[in-house]
Amino acid sequence: MSNEAATATTTAEAAPAPEPIPHGLGASLPAADARAKTEGTFPYAADLWAEGLLWAAVLRSPHPHARIVSIDASHAREMPGVRAVVTHEDVPGTPVHGRGKADRPVFASEVVRHHGEPIAAVAADHPDTARMAAAAIMVEYEVLDPVTDPEQAFEAEPLHPDGNLIRHIPLRHGDPDAAGEIVVEGLYRIGRQDPAPIGAEAGLAVPRPDGGVELYLASTDPHADRDTAAACYGLEPERVKIVVTGVPGATADREDQGFQLPLGLLALRTGCPVKLTATREESFLGHAHRHPTLLRYRHHADAEGRLVKVEAQILLDAGAYADTSSEALAAAVGFACGPYVVPNAFIEGWAVRTNNPPSGHVRGEGAMQVCAAYEAQMDKLAKKLGVDPAELRLRNVLSTGDVLPTGQTVTCPAPVAELLQAVRDFPLPALPKDTPEDEWLLPGGPEGAGEPGAVRRGVGYGLGMVHMLGAEGADEVSTATVKVQDGVATVLCAAVETGQGFTTLARQIVQETLGIDEVHVAPVDTDQPPAGAGCRGRHTWVSGGAVERAAKMVRTQLLQPLAHKFGMSTELLQITDGKITSYDGVLSTTVTEAMDGKELWATAQCRPHPTEPLDGAGQGDAFVGMAFCAIRAVVDVDIELGSVRVVELALAQDVGRVLNPAQLAARIEAGVTQGVGIALTENLRTARGLIRHPDLTGYALPTALDAPDIRIVKLVEERDVVAPFGAKAVSAVPVVTSPAAIASAVRAATGRPVNRLPIRPQAAVVTSQ
Question: Which pLDDT belongs to residue 13?
Answer without folding.
Answer: 47
